[in-house]
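Section 3.1: Structural characterization of target chains.
Under the original work plan, the team committed to producing a structural model for every single-chain target entering the pipeline before any wet-lab resources were allocated. The record below documents one such target. The sequence was received from the expression subgroup and is listed exactly as submitted; it comprises 321 residues.
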Amino acid sequence: MSNGQERGGINLPFTGIATFGKNPYLTNWESLEADVAILGAPFDFGTQWRPGARFGPRAIREASTLFAFGHAGAYDHEDDVTYLGPETSIVDLGDADIIHTDTEASHANVEAALRLILDKGALPVVLGGDHSVNIPCIRAFAGRGPIHIVQIDAHLDFVDERHGVRHGHGNPMRRAAEQDHVTGISQLGIRNVSSTAKEGYDAARAMGTDILSVRQIRDLGLAGVLARIPVDADLYFTIDIDGFDPSIAPGTGTPSHGGFLYYEVLELLAALAARQRVVGIDLVEVAPDYDRTGSTAILAAQLLLNVIGRILHARQTSGQA
């Protein structure tokens, strides 16, 4: 009996196992040998309002199957480039172990997984989870810097401590700025009523961050924004889905109107990937239960696949390590 593989039917979005992009699932992490390693961090104990981002990794993986038809890569007619071709390798490691109600142990497991991925020479791409999972991700780069963080977000996330909490989803950029291997942060998209008080903005600037709203970025244009991001450090992208406008990304715990559109973010990240080395990515705060259309998870998957493709293409064509 035919199983349909010779006709390609097994690669349809609604068949098979929903790994990220339908790439291989690797259970033995010690055998990791790939360009990119996908890791889920289904943790949302750091949220201050609406939970649900723990279901983000699963939703992003399922959405990513839409872009996994097995056509030997993704041809972009505007760039005249086939991204994610057979010469590239992506594996899905599944999820870091999350221990319910235990932030520190869960974060430690994420950090350990990131360190292993980095030791194996793969690009880590982390699917959150709330934005607190960025804290262990950045810790994992200790001794591997310097890195400059490019943050896409509606919120500054620079709270030092609130009611004794230092590792929630309002704290990650403050914790990152404290790390010796982080040379600076470009905080892009920050707008409107924020989760951080003025003191946090003052502290962020004093600690070397550059804060731009969506409107300021549109005024500057792509070249103007690129000119403000240092070229003398490797880049780490942290992408909060609420950096996008809720008209295209309603599935998140803290939506904020006036956000980015898809190409505004893709063009910026693609330009940075072409210019310098990108060493890690996390995409966080997708909470699928607030978006019954699934478009938020599709946006997340589409953005990640395109950004990964451009990072790998830059490495192949420019000799980036």
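The first helix runs from residue 56 to 64.
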